[in-house]
Design goal:
Elements: H1 2-22, H2 32-39, H3 44-62, H4 77-90, H5 92-97, H6 100-111, E1 115-116, E2 127-128
Antiparallel strand pairs: 1-2
Helix pairs in contact: 2-3, 2-6, 3-4, 4-6
């Protein structure tokens, strides 16, 4: 039984370590330059990728998963793309320095800012529209 417990301990420890090491990877997975390149492309695949990336970010914001901008629920992908591309054109330094998620957050929060509340308990509901 001792050898079995050691194997279980190693498996659990390895799993916990893998989770801890991978937890922050998605925040900077796509660069701002990569997002702008895909969203500015004429290739159908890149346009589909862009639509999915923008739509999932906006859905998360609208559903208050992370309230960083007050994107109206009726906003289409074309409008999101235009807001992003206009922001990128005016702020090339952000495109170079930010991750894709940071760039979207900055562009959308400048277009549709939130109002702050006094709620210090929950980041989710701290920003309201």
């Amino acid at each position: 039984m001792g050898a079995d417990m050691t194997k279980i301990y190693i498996a659990v420890s390895t799993t916990i370590l893998a989770i801890c090491l991978s937890s922050g990877l998605s925040a900077g997975y796509y660069s701002g330059k990569g997002v702008i390149a895909n969203c500015g492309s004429e290739v159908a695949y890149d346009n589909g990728w862009c639509a999915g990336y923008l739509g999932s970010w906006a859905d998360g914001d609208i559903d208050m998963v992370r309230r960083k901008a007050c994107i109206p629920s009726s906003t289409g992908i074309g409008v999101l793309k235009k807001v992003l591309m206009d922001y990128a054109e005016k702020n090339p330094q952000d495109v170079e320095a930010m991750s894709g998620g940071e760039l979207l957050q900055r562009a959308f929060s400048r277009k549709w800012p939130t109002d702050s509340t006094d709620d210090t308990v929950s980041e989710i509901y701290r920003k309201t529209c």
